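Exercise 3.2. Students should predict the tertiary structure of the chain below and write it as structure tokens, then compare their answer with the key that follows.

Predict this chain's 3D structure.
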Amino acid sequence: MLLSWPLAAEDLAGISALAVKISVFILSSVVVYRAADSRKKAEAGLLAKRNEAEKLSKELSTKDMEIVNSASAGEVGNLVSGIMHDLGNSVTVILLSAQIAVEDEKPAKTDLERIVRAAGFAKSIIASALGITRGQEYVFEVIDLREPLSKAVLMLDYSAKSRKVRLETDLPEAMPQLRLSRVQIERVFINIISNSISFAPEGGFVRVCAVPENGAVTVIVTDNGPGFSEKMLNEGIKAFNTTRKADGGTGLGLFVCAQILEKHGGTIKLENSERGGSRIIIRLPSAELRLKAEG
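Answer key:
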């Protein structure tokens, strides 16, 4: 059932409740790990909590899409700002609680460190998005692209393993310095790599490589999934253009990536590999080239 606009109090309450439930399930996963009598019991408990959290996350995503489809851009912006602010408080709780758990030398330390990284990243996105809604620009700094790229791969490593997909990287030892927003460019890589993982078949692969060339860096993400539809390739990247609506896809991921890359003076291109699967090609200019272009 679609939500009506303006949103009723119960709709907003429902969204907030779902967000809180997700936070509680993640936190309870930590408790399961710390209180379990055996590793086997801990893993079983965590798996159950993860499944419940994923179910709730999909439900929250569905509500988000109903809001987007029933409201104007300005109204959605105001609403999302409020929701992100509230989620920021929940993420802070997750982050602090998980950090405390990580300090204990337990078998689950690696898994909990992943929670810390993910929660910290989510909070950074929220802070950045709230800043943008207040008229603040991206915070750019000169960095090595391998840093956000490696963080994205590390964060998605478990996701790939759980789907029995090989996540491979080929990063050069030296690359030109780029002027980037750390949070936003990491967001691009997480979006794209996660998308490829979800499309790759069991036993398949997702390969991430970076190539410095002509004062720029090209990042290519390849998978052996079904590839892009002809419609997608012909129409290009548009909001809500997705071939995965039946699986809960919104069509916003690549669109957001394209917008972020545009602000970096970069480009994104979609292709299908000759051997099957998709290729997403991202090109980012070096800091030197960007300064010349802006100068």
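Discussion points: The longest strand covers residues 205-213. The first helix runs from residue 9 to 35.
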